[in-house]
C-alpha cells in the first residue's frame, strides 16, 4: 500500500473537520437537524459528497471492491443520505453533525500513516495518537452518531423521511460499534495481553 490513498483521505478530513466550526457559527443547526443550515455548511456537505463518490469509484475501478466492501457499504450509506440533503436541502444540519466524525478521522488516518511509515510501536507519538484516536472516537464518532439517532427517534412523528434516515443510522451504528470493538481489541486488549506476558516472564 502507498501513501497516496491515506493522504487523500487525510486531506478530505482536514477540510471537513471544519464542520464543528459551522455549528459554532450557526448553533441553531444542533437543535433542528432537518431544516436549518448555512451556506458554508451546505458546501461542506457538497464537498464531502464529492469525496465519497470519488473514493468509492477509486475503490471499484482499482479492483479493491471485494477486499474493501466495508468501506463501500459505508460510502453507500453516507451518500444516499448526503445526496438527499444536497438535492433537497433537507437534513443538511444532520449531515454536518454527522461530519463531526472527521475529527476522529484525523487521528485514525494519522495512525495508518504512522503504521505505513513503520513507526515503532513504542514511539511516544504513536502512543499519543492512539490515545487521542480512542478519545475522539468516543466523543465525536459515537457522540455524533448517537445524537442524530436520538434526534430522529425523539422527533420521529414530526419529521419527514424519518424512517429513511433512522434506518440508515441504525445500520451505521452497528458498523461503528463493530469498529469500536476492533479498536479496543487492537489498541487496548493487545497491549494488556503484552503486559501480562511480560509480568508472567518476570515471575518465571
UniProtKB/TrEMBL annotation:
Compartmental location: Membrane
Domain called TLC: residue spans: 1-192
Record keywords: Membrane, Transmembrane, Transmembrane helix
InterPro entries, alphabetized: TLC-dom, TLCD
Cellular component terms (Gene Ontology): plasma membrane
Presence of the UniProt keyword NAD in the record: no
Keyword Membrane: yes
TM annotation in the entry: 42-64, 71-87, 93-114, 134-155, 161-181
Membrane-protein topology: Multi-pass membrane protein
One GO term (biological process): membrane assembly
A Pfam family per the record: TRAM_LAG1_CLN8
PANTHER family: CT120 PROTEIN (PTHR13439), TLC DOMAIN-CONTAINING PROTEIN 1 (PTHR13439:SF5)
UniProt-recorded name of the protein: TLC domain-containing protein
Organism for this UniProt entry: Danionella cerebrum
